[in-house]
């Protein structure tokens, strides 16, 4: 064999993609879809027939999983749309320091940082429950390279 060095550059990472394709006609309410480049939870999915070409279209209404902002879109039923991978993880709140949440994974005890205290009512409720000495669990939603605290429950 020859001593040829075949360097193909850096190897590709084996990480999962942020989205995957799905037929627009198979989308259902409370599922997720990418609208205007934003991960949205579907609040309404309706099917209509276009008068122009006779195509069946899917009318989608959804809210941004991070901000709650409303988005709408229309796609032909047989076309693929991008569906984001959305992961909800619950953590135990260990502390709040300078607007940042100190979180612990309950199963592993692993510390998680870098999540900011949400603005608005959710942030105020999390902070008041924590300062009152309650056991607070925070739900962190991760999608499309972003993550934010999107829910909580106190015991």
Account of the 3D structure:
- This protein is mainly beta.
- It has 2 domains: 19-84, SH3 type barrels (Roll); 87-154, OB fold (Dihydrolipoamide Acetyltransferase, E2P).
- The chain is built from 1 helix and 11 strands.
- A 5-stranded antiparallel beta sheet has the order 9-8-7-10-11, with helices on one face.
- Strand 8 and strand 9 form a beta hairpin.
- The longest helix is centred in the C-terminal third of the chain and has 11 residues, at 121-131.
- The N and C termini lie far apart (68 Å).
- Residues 8-15 have low confidence and may be disordered.
Poorly predicted runs:
8-15
| Class per helix and strand makeup | mainly beta
Terminus-to-terminus distance: 68 Å
Assign the CATH class of the largest domain: Mainly Beta
- What's the CATH topology name of the largest domain? OB fold (Dihydrolipoamide Acetyltransferase, E2P)
Gyration radius (Cα, Å) is 21 Å
Secondary structure tally, helices: 1
Fraction of residues in H or I helices: under 10%
The global form is elongated
Q: State the strand order across the main sheet.
A: 9-8-7-10-11
Supply the number of structural domains: 2
Strands, count: 11
Beta-strand share of residues: over 45%
**What is the CATH superfamily of the largest domain?**
Nucleic acid-binding proteins
The whole-number mean of residue pLDDT values reads 88
| SSE string, helices as H and strands as E | EEEEEEEEEHEE
CATH architecture of the largest domain: Beta Barrel
Keywords: Initiation factor, Protein biosynthesis
Protein name: Translation initiation factor IF-5A
Organism: Streptomyces amritsarensis
InterPro entries: IF5A-like (IPR001884), IF5A-like_N (IPR048670), IF5A_C (IPR020189), NA-bd_OB-fold (IPR012340), Rib_uL2_dom2 (IPR014722), Translation_prot_SH3-like_sf (IPR008991)
